[in-house]
Design goal:
Blueprint lengths: L11 H34 L9 E5 L6 H17 L3 E5 L6 H10 L4 E6 L1 H4 L1 H4 L7 H4 L1 E9 L1 E6 L7 H10 L5 E4 L3 H12 L5 E2 L7 H8 L4 E5 L4 H5 L3 E6 L27 E6 L5 H16 L1 H9 L2 E3 L4 H19 L9
Parallel strand pairs: 1-2, 1-3, 6-7, 6-8
Antiparallel strand pairs: 3-10, 4-10, 4-11, 5-8, 5-9
Length: about 350
């Protein structure tokens, strides 16, 4: 029979009790800290339910413009996917810097930005001190569309091709006039004229609709701008398209070749637009938005609406938007070697 010794009050076990209590206290403290950490992390994990309230989409284009119309199509489709309204707030002006500045200042994880790549690539070259850092404050999320840009000539100038346009301009330097969309189209055509040693007069307008009317009446002879802003005189039989200046043909004009296909890659422009987020927007949320935009870009009905509005539909991916920005930056650096970006023709 085993006999267990009695433990006196001064035994080793009794002496070990304070250490045991201290160990348990440490365990309780660690458990409490873990619970506190989980509580702090809970709001972030709940971001899986983003958006938790209506989302604002700041758009840097004037209401009624082709890019504004595209932004509203995406806002409507995203609102249906998310079960929360996506409210478009148009903040145009100053080459997009007003809208971008408003977006950056908001510091809100339920505010997104819809703008063109030029807000990242062109604006820093035009504005000496932007109130924001385009690389730090604008996080690319999704490429959406590329507005279709056309080189169009008046029927008062009897040319049917780019070589014929060059020949006519060379034969009468300074006789003819032109206009374009802002920034990239103007830079590209100015550089084209300089590279080919051609002289035309640039005409400025306040009203966006006036260049179309003047092209049709022959008061200007060439126009490089969006399909929607140049189609009216063509439909009236007063002007003709010479080329699509995007890298790919327009979905609604499959028979009109690109400038690159015609042998004039120096006229090429990719005016892509996309959705950007702020640096405070979690990566998981940005990835979800990109996936949802990509799905919308594949939707047949949405594509039809966008193409009818003068856009080529892109993939919706983050990678395409980032690559487009870098390609445009490179192109801008090359243009700056040919013309004065801040004072083009």
């Amino acid at each position: 029979m085993t006999v267990f010794p009695q433990i006196s009050r001064g035994s080793t076990l009794t002496a070990a009790r304070p250490a045991l209590f201290r160990h348990n206290a440490r365990l309780c403290a660690l458990a409490g800290l873990a619970a506190f950490s989980i509580a702090l992390a809970a709001p972030m994990s709940a971001r899986a339910d983003w958006p938790e309230r209506p989302v604002k989409l700041v758009v840097t284009f004037p209401p009624g413009s082709a890019n504004d119309a595209a932004a509203r199509i995406f806002a409507d489709a995203l609102g249906k996917k998310w079960g929360k309204s996506v409210v478009v707030e148009a903040r145009p002006g100053a080459e997009g810097t007003i809208g971008v500045g408003s977006f950056v200042a908001s510091q809100d994880d339920h505010t997104l930005l819809y703008t063109v790549a030029g807000s990242v690539t062109v604006a820093p070259m035009l504005v000496e001190k932007l109130p924001y850092d385009v690389d730090r404050d604008l996080v690319p999320i999704s490429a959406t569309t590329a507005i279709v840009l056309m080189l169009t000539v008046s029927n008062h100038l009897s040319v049917n091709s780019i070589p014929e346009l060059i020949e006519a301009l060379r034969a009468s330097p300074g006789k003819y006039a032109w206009n374009s969309g802002p920034t990239l189209p103007r830079f590209v055509f100015s550089a084209f004229l300089k590279q080919h040693d051609l002289k035309m007069n640039f005409v400025s307008y306040r009203a966006a609709s006036q260049p179309q009317a003047d092209l049709g009446e022959g008061r200007i002879q060439a126009l490089l701008t969006s399909l929607t802003a140049s189609s009216s005189p063509v439909q009236a039989g007063k002007a003709r398209f010479l080329a699509v200046v995007n890298p790919t043909r327009a979905a609604t004009l499959p028979d009109v070749k690109t400038a690159r296909e015609l042998g004039y890659p120096e006229l090429e422009i990719e005016g892509l637009a996309g959705i950007f987020g702020s640096k405070i927007l979690p990566k998981a949320v940005r990835s979800r938005i990109a996936a949802d935009v990509a799905a919308i870009c594949r939707d047949t009905d949405v594509r039809s609406k966008l193409e009818a509005g003068g856009h080529n539909v892109l993939s919706g991916t983050t990678e395409e938007l980032k690559a487009g920005i870098e390609k445009q930056r490179s192109a801008m650096n090359e243009l700056a070697k040919v013309i004065d970006i801040r004072n083009p023709q």
